[in-house]
Amino acid sequence: MQIYLPIAGMSVNVFLILAMGGGVGLLSGLFGVGGGFLMTPLLIFIGVPPAVAVGTQSNQIVASSVSGVLAHMRRGNVDFKMGAVLTAGGFIGSGLGVWIFNILQRLGHIDVTIAIGYVIFLGIVGGFMLYESLPIVLGRPLPAGMALTPRGPGERSWMHALPFKMRFRRSKLYISALLPFAVGFLVGILVATMGVGGGFVMVPAMIYLLGMPTQVVIGTSLFQIIFVTANTTLLQAVFNRSVDVVLALLLLVFGVIGAQVGARLATRFKGEQLRVMLALIVMGVALRLFFDLIISPDDIFSLGGS
Amino acid sequence: MRKAALTLLLSLVAASARADDVPLVADLSSHLVAITSGFTGTDILLFGSTDGPGDIVVVVRGPAGDVNIRRKERLGPIWVNASSVTAHDAPSYYRMASSRPLNEFVSDQLKERYQLGLANLRLNTSDEKFSADEMAQFRTALVRLKTADGLYGEDLGAVNMMSNRLFRTELHFPANVPTGTYLVEVYLFREGAVTSAEIVPFTVSKLGIGADVYDFAQNYGALYGLFAVLIAIVAGYAASAAFKRA
Fold this sequence. Notes:
The complex is a heterodimer of chains A (306) and B (246).
Chain A: E1 2-5, E2 10-13, H1 14-31, H2 36-45, H3 50-74, H4 80-107, H5 110-137, H6 157-160, E3 165-168, E4 173-176, H7 178-194, H8 199-210, H9 214-240, H10 245-266, H11 271-294, E5 301-304
Antiparallel strand pairs in A: 1-2, 3-4
Chain B: H1 2-20, E1 24-28, E2 32-35, E3 41-50, E4 55-61, E5 64-75, E6 78-91, E7 94-98, H2 108-113, H3 132-148, E8 152-156, E9 160-162, E10 166-174, E11 180-190, E12 193-206, H4 209-219, H5 221-245
Parallel strand pairs in B: 2-12, 7-8
Antiparallel strand pairs in B: 1-3, 3-10, 4-7, 4-11, 5-6, 9-10, 11-12
Helix pairs in contact in B: 4-5
């Protein structure tokens, strides 16, 4: 059954979109990630214009983050103060991101920018996860000196010297508000230009850079993602007219169900096993996009609107 | 039933053409292509009559607009869009159909004047920074890519003539057909010259819920964005509540 997507301006198979939503939802529940980094390339792959894929993903991530954050709030695993500072940075970052997106789109460089962004960020994050988890799964843990350990700003003198110190009780931190603000800002740019929630960059940054305790990281990340993606959706709708509500709703239906099923499946695996699997998927997407960038295109010409 | 009605209609058209001595009459089975939520493309029947033997050429043009033709080049290890040419007022849709291969009854001069066929489509590209050879490559690329999208094409011999008086042809419009006003030009050729011509307009427009969503997004971007966010929050909350109980 075909359905016409009003903003994307194309006709798609409903069942394909539902299956994509369910499949990515399953993986996102299983690995505890947003799934935007899988869905946006998939949408572009089936022919959705990159601008619409990115704008619509922001909208869908709002929904998946709301459904995810409620469970964490019930368990008290959200640092609202930290979330607010991250969100403040994220608002400015995503605003800048939407503006950059608009310019790149007019110049015809948006596809290649999205692809390069994915290759870099997914490559780095996937590489780190593999480096850390693979030895554990294979039964040969890294020697203490080589393992990545959470290091708070307390151990780095220049971070300690920054002004605007703030106490974050839930995270048991007393650090400069500029640090989470900067993290929120940079991730905000990614959210707006790449159609992701940014959790895959935000979570490592919270653990390794800010030194937040692991149990509040996911909840706080989801909490701020809601606001930053909501802001991005709004700005994309105003400036780029690229949010397709029909597509977002279709992706949502099985997306939320898949996420719940995935979350239940996740209890059957060990944490390290899940991280290796996720790392392999992340690296796979990065490699695929990398090869698309370097192999000679079938047609070196393409058309863009006025 | 529909075919019988059509035959009747065609014979009426033919009769009236004879009666008033009009050399060419043409019309479409529908003057509106409605893009609804189930739209996957559509066919429109063009039919008409002539007052005697001759050849028919049909040209359909969609609303014109600027198109950027971009060319990728290798920049270090990766391919990026490095140069581009803008085709001004290029038709968003172009299709030509004729009763016989054009070369059998139209001179090159007339093909050019009436822009018959993709090779004669005038594309206003006024960039002097490229050589004529390169400009030709950009032009071919535009035609090739539009043809691949099903938006440009030519069907030689697709116009069926019946007893030298009636003619008909199916015009196809794919799911990605641009909206706006279209013009169908119908030419009657005799002995290498256009003896009569007619222009039939029709509209392609989005209708139904999809159209409302599109108009809302175009005209009230901020409100649409708020609405989209609100739907997402409600959907996320509902999903969480539903699975908490389960």
